[in-house]
Task: structure prediction
Amino acid sequence: MPPPMSIGVSHPAYEKIINGQTHRGQVPVMGRLRLAELMPIMDLDNSVQGVLAVDVGWVDDLIIARDELRNQSILVACIILIVEALLGAAYISYALRPIRVLAKYAEDMGSEKNLGSVPFIGQSDEVGTLSEGLNHVVDLQVKLAHLAYTDDLTGLGNRSRYFADLQVALRNSQSAIESWALLHLNIDKFGHINDAYGQEMGDQILKRIGARIKQVAGNQAKVARPSAANFIIIIDNRLATDEITVLAQNLIESMRKGFHTPVGEISITGSMGVIDVLKGFDDPEVVHLNASLALRKAQRAGGDQYAIFSSELNDEYQERVTLIKMLEMAIENRELEIHFQPQVILSSNKLSGLEALARWKHPILGQIPPAKFIPIAEDGGQIVKLGTLIIDMACQQAAQWRKEKFDFKHIAVNVSPIQLWQDNFIDVLSASLKRYKLPANCICIEITESVFIDHTKHKTLRVLELIRSLGVMLSLDDFGSGYSSLSYLNNMPFDQVKIDRSFVTNIDTDDRKKKVMRGILSLTTELDFKIIIEGTETIEEIMMVQEMGCDVVQGYYHAKPVPADLIRGVVDKISKSVLAINAKL
Ligand code: C2E
Ligand code: MG
Ligand code: MG
Result:
């Protein structure tokens, strides 16, 4: 019989107890489980009389106690780990500090900051060795920066230095209320110095110009020579506008002082574009362009002066850019035309020749005068294409008139000095003559006096002689209006001189003009040039110059320039007016 105990048949201890074995495990007591060691109590017959239970405790309490203990252990372990990690990190951070400092130093080397000497130099450990290495790099960087940012000749900044300084000035002006100014100085016609005294002397002068600019602009100014005879002065501290203009004026004046050299006194002048700004610019290229616009204004006004950039200047520039694009298209599409103006022999009222004058009629803007589009084409780089087109059209027209037996004598074509200096000018001219099978004397090339300005006598002479060697006539246009050098007149192979309109306007009433004209005529006839007087508008002017011995004129009195298909009518009319003039005479 099983003993009467709370352990029933189904309990895992039951079997063991019945068989006299002990059991360790959970015992249900009052609906909960207790952990106990159960030992059977046996009588002498070895039958189970009861169970001795050594109670350990409630199982769930034990589990809670165990879990709590485990959690606490985990927490303690975590705390130990974190503390250890923090200590480790702090130690690593401390140990790596020199490396971090050096790395930051290396990183900052790329910036414009003054970093001072490399830290930890002289330390006898690995950090010291690393600093040594970095120090070598710094030395190298200083040398490279010097090479990369310095103009060899003058020791001033070069183009890269200029743009880097400009960038910094722009950045500062964005972040602080700091004004800055940029002065772009160009030495007027510096090529002459090289041509006249040689490159070496030119270099010496540029060097001395650089030193003079530094002296006048002061230590605060950043001075660079980005190219040939161009100097940039950046002032990025706060100077009032009138101080900037005083500085600009001083710089211009300092250029006029000239330079004593072993070959004598060399004089120069400079032109300058000035930008004086508080804020509002952020693109260095735009700033450079605007300074160049102001510089161009100063140069166009004759040089030896400064001009300040204004927004109107920018508007003008935008208009020019638009015109340049339109002109480019007009040239491409052969939309330009030529009008012809007769050159008239007064004694016979016959034709001496025709001048070809370019005309551009824009579909929207209407007629744009050559006085406007020729300088634009010269500035914008289209003049060579334009000139080539005009030469070709003039030759085509000449061939056409020859076919029609119209005796036009010659067509005078205006050629810009820029085109004349192209290496292929002679080829272009002779190719057009060949294309239309024209005798060379059908064409006369008109060149203004400005051709003498930028080149040596020798070079000019060579080009003009090449033109003459083709058999093409040469005419000196606008004589007396610009750079009239009598020595040029004497040496250059011109067939004809065209006396500028300014000498003939109102000559009949202006005694001084009469005297000047007499002088010019006696000089030019003495030198055996054919003479044309341009711009004769009234019969009185014509009578006056004819009386002075001039027989060929070109002016509105006889005819304004007209399209090719009207020219024969105009010429007929002129030939019939012979009696009218003679009657007045
Ligand atoms: P230019 O070669 O001295 O041409 C004479 C200019 O004076 C022409 O002006 C002509 O129309 C004008 N003219 C002629 N007679 C009189 C007159 O009695 N009174 C007045 N007030 N003016 C007169 P245009 O056609 O406007 O040409 C102006 C200038 O543009 C030319 O001066 C020439 O330097 C340049 N040009 C014209 N066509 C060409 C060309 O195809 N190529 C180049 N490079 N320049 C050209
Ligand atoms: Mg002309
Ligand atoms: Mg002229």
Q: What stands out?
A: The chain is about 50% helix and 20% strand. The radius of gyration is 49 Å.
